[in-house]
Amino acid sequence: MTELLDRIYRDQLATWIGKTCHFRLLYKISRDGCSATTFHQQCNGQGPTVTVLYNTNNTIYGGYLSQSWNSSGGYINDPNAFLFRLQYNGSSNPLKCPVTNATSAGYGGGNYGPTFGGGHDIHTFSGTITKSGNYFPLNGYLHAVGNSYNLNGQNANTMFNNSLQVTDLEVFLVKDGPDPNKATMDSELLDNPWRKFPDFDVKTMQQLKESVVEYEPESEANVTAANILLIGQIGAGKSSFFNSVNSIFRGKITSKARSGSFEHSLTTVFRKYTIKDQNSGHNLKIRLCDTRGLEEDFTIDAQEIAYILDGNVPDRYQFNPSAPFTTETFGFIRNPRLGDKIHCVAFVVDGSTIDVMPEKILKQLKELQGRMNQRNIPQVVYLTKLDKVCAKVNEDASNMFYSQAVRDTVDKVADVMGLPRGYIMPIKNYESETSLEPNIDILILKALKQTADFADDYLEEQVDKMAAEGRREEKD
Question: For the domain 187-475, what is the CATH code?
Answer without folding.
Answer: 3.40.50.300
